[in-house]
Amino acid sequence: MKMAEVRVPLAAVELDGSLRIPPGARAIVVFAHGSGSGRHSPRNRYVADVLTTAGLATFLVDLLTRQEEMVDLQTAELRFDIGLLAERLGGVTDWLASEPATATMSIGYFGASTGAAAALIAAADRPQTVRAIVSRGGRPDLAMSVLPSIRQPTLLIVGGADEVVIDLNRRALASLGGIMRMVIVPGATHLFEEPGALEQVAVEASEWFRQYLVEQPQT
Q1: What is the number of domains present in the chain?
Q2: Of 106, 115, 162, 161, nearest to 134 (Cα)?
Q3: pLDDT tens-digit readout, 83-119
Q4: Model confidence, pTM
Q5: Which CATH number characterizes residue 145's domain?
Q6: Domain of 141, in residue numbers
């Protein structure tokens, strides 16, 4: 297993990320965090562990700098700046596509909360680079304008007790182009803290990415 803490140089900032590449990996999943979360999120790190066990490389990256995170903790404004998050996620994706260790890998996105909207927007801009998307408790409604243009296979995972987000995801599902599916985890709330809930998220995500990034990559 190759593991590294890296800094991704973008036009105006450098972003911190945690890269893990298991032996023989042919695809990589980039995690787009949202709502004040980052690469140290225990929930996303758990999902990343399951994905690497399944042979997928993972990249957990902070889309905000440390200084921006401090501001966001006080104002909660930047976590809803979907355009900014999407632009940075796109920059990270372009960086991965140019790095020797990851350049040949199929790329997928795992977006949580507002990060799911950022993932959808970035994916819409990169139809040939980003091959599959998974949203966990996401807000795809915040990317409604791009949903009809999404052609990548997209999986929306929502907690069964997260009624407002269920409704928002159902509306988004109706607008998505291409292959799409929605999974409701029974009894789970927004953070999937109930016993077995996050495990189901990880299994669903792993199967989706293996199917559409490794077994049936788009051409």
Answers
A1: 1
A2: 115
A3: 999 999 999 999 999 999 999 999 999 999 999 999 9
A4: 0.94
A5: 3.40.50.1820
A6: 2-215
